[in-house]
Specification:
The complex is a heterodimer of chains A (112) and B (120).
Chain A (H helix, E strand, L loop, with lengths): L9 E5 L4 E6 L5 E9 L6 E7 L4 E3 L3 E6 L4 E6 L8 E9 L11 E6 L1
Chain B lengths: L3 E4 L2 E4 L5 E7 L5 E7 L5 E8 L2 E5 L6 E7 L2 E6 L8 E8 L15 E2 L3 E5 L1
Parallel strand pairs in B: 2-11
Antiparallel strand pairs in B: 1-3, 3-8, 4-5, 4-9, 5-6, 7-8, 9-10, 9-11
The chains are: A mainly beta (112), B mainly beta (120).
Chain lengths: 112, 120
């Protein structure tokens, strides 16, 4: 249903610093994880994905770490830039691969 | 050249009215979706269609009726609009369908820019 009572977590980071955005998931059957970025006024955009047989994956300036033991993943952004300001969503999928379900999201604010 | 385009971008209407949002993708994808995003940025899937066939109907009131005339189009019609329908509606497409039991090569969805619906 609706996200009544929930607040969007916000992370403020100085430009040039590294950012770490965390995501906890509850379903131990989650098998595949995707990160999306949503800039203001736009639709979500795919950033990077990782499968459960990996614990780390790197892209351009981004790294995703997966810890299946504690059901946690993080998105690390190196040398954060103003253009990184957005809401970031993690989207775990279980082995049924039925649908892409988005988590609550974290708002990243980059301070120039 | 927009990959997933939806119209209108903004829609303001009175309670009880009927309205439609249109979506088109030029990516050649077989699967399209509607998502609803509320004011807290919570993004929830509503429907998915694969090659004009309904795959997912995520417990959405039957006032919402998706229609896919062909695999490049997925429109959303909403009857008897209510205040709680106010949200941003996103259309998306993917290269391959989910929910077939096959592991997808990618979970990447391509989203449109959204249609902000305000019900007064």
């Amino acid at each position: 249903g609706e996200s009544v009572g929930l607040h969007l977590p916000t992370l403020s980071v100085q430009e040039g610093d590294n950012s770490i955005i965390n995501c906890a998931y509850s379903n131990s059957a989650s098998d595949y994880f995707i990160w999306y970025k949503q800039e203001s006024g736009k639709g979500p955009q795919f950033i990077i994905d990782i499968r459960s047989n990996m614990d780390k994956r790197q892209g351009q300036r981004v790294t995703v770490l997966l810890n299946k033991t504690v059901k946690h993943l993080s998105l690390q952004i190196a040398a954060t830039q103003p253009g990184d300001s957005a809401v970031y969503f993690c989207a775990p999928m279980d082995k049924s691969y039925q649908k892409v379900t988005f988590g609550i999201g974290t708002k990243l604010q980059v301070i120039p | 050249d927009t990959a997933v385009s939806q119209t209108p971008k903004y829609l303001v209407t009175q309670m009880g009215n009927d309205k439609s949002i249109k979506c088109e993708q030029n990516l050649g994808h077989d699967t399209m979706y509607w998502y609803k995003q509320d004011s807290k940025k919570f993004l929830k899937i509503m429907f998915s269609y694969n090659n004009k066939e309904l795959i997912i109907n995520e417990t959405v009131p039957n006032r919402f009726s998706p229609k896919s005339p062909d695999k490049a189009h997925l429109n959303l019609h909403i009857n008897s609009l209510e205040l709680g329908d106010s949200a941003v509606y996103f259309c998306a497409s993917s290269q391959e369908p989910f929910g077939t039991g096959r592991i997808p090569d990618t979970g990447e969805l391509f989203f449109g820019e959204g249609s902000r619906l305000t019900v007064l």
